[in-house]
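seq as requested:
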Amino acid sequence: MKKLIKFVILVVVIIGVAFFIWLRFFSNTPFDTYRPAPRATTITDLPKFPGFPLYGILSSKEKQDELVREIVDLKLTTYPAQSSRSKRAGKHIGSGIFGSFDPTEEQVAKLAPHYDYVMFGASKKELFLKFKKYNPTVKGLLYMDSALGPKFAEWKVQADPGSIDSEDTPWVVENHPEWLLKDTEGNIIVVGEGALQTPGTYLPDPGHPGYQEYFAEKVSKLLREQGGIWSGILLDDFMGSIGAYEHYSKTSKPAKYPTNEAFKNAQISFFNTVRKKINIPIVANIDGISVVLDPEVFGQIAVAAGGAESEVYPEEMPIEDMRRFLEVIEKIPKDKQIFIGSKPSPGWAGDIDKTLFAYYSYLLFADKDREAYWTYKEGPSDIPHYWFREFDLDLGEPLGEAEEMSNLFVREFENVIAVVNADNNDSHEFQPQTKGAFYDIAGNPLVMPITLEARTAVLIVKNPSKILNQH
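struct tokens:
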């Protein structure tokens, strides 16, 4: 009996540990692979999501990778045989860097043709070249963390300036502590527990000429070693305000920069200096708080660095903030690289309504001649998203910039009208300014005006011969 009790206790402990690991590392992959039934009209039919079985977290790395690849294969069934890149309104970037697993050759062959840009770490150089094999025109964004992580240096993964060669993060701390941000008591600031960044990471001083030279030298060296294959650098965890450090990094405010204006000037000085030595755009992934509180920072950094990324559009933007963000986007020169990473679904199963809302919101500024790229995430970044048939529609040329009409954001194309209600609370009516017959994307006639519920968006077809025969 005692042996039986011990065995039962052991089993319970194992299940408890497995459940904890699941919640800790797979919390964005719910047990119930629930996908809300769409309310919006869609021409996309997503396959039923099979889920990630509980036994998977107790399996070997090889078995886990196999399970993930099965999920990727399921999502790839939604990708069309032919790419629509030549006709679609916007540009797309892949959602992840495949840091946790490698896709198969067949998966790359299906994924690559549909993207204008993909992002990888330096260790995934060969995977990027494989993408180029199946899409010779695809561009590559090289991942680089903006902070200095001791773990990256230890692993020698070349994922931040302090992990590229022997003059690494420990070398910087020992020989050049003046390059690091300090608090009011003169202590070097490090990322705290509970932060989104890795605890113990050091935060460099962007305004220090010595660090600017160091950054440019190390990144330029890495680019040379990689063979000049990258079209841009993604600078991750980039803080646009001093308050962001407190929220995201759980640190004290840097004493050297008492105001956001002083800090912003240091950041712009950093980019103005390093861009002269690194001859490709640096895309700063600006924290969400800074983008929402001061969208002008997004535009100013994009101009100085050559690019900027926002991962909060449009989910965390009420109508007032979305209005300000669109105004900033329209002022950014079209040759500056803008990356929008929407997060409409916390789980791998997807959410059709929120994904279409995010995509139609992106169409408010997408252009064939603008370097603005969009993606969305369903759970982890590494897992490719579903492909919606709405992405492939030939909307025609945009007939101007987005406008605000009756609390709705509206942008007209040759073949459709994109209408977005970013209001969190109220519904609003839309009445086209021109007469004629209008349809939804499934071909159903629409009686105008139509009402958009809070936080919804639609494509209104005005030229059905160009749209409805595409699906």
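Residues 58-398 form a domain with the TIM Barrel fold (CATH 3.20.20.70).
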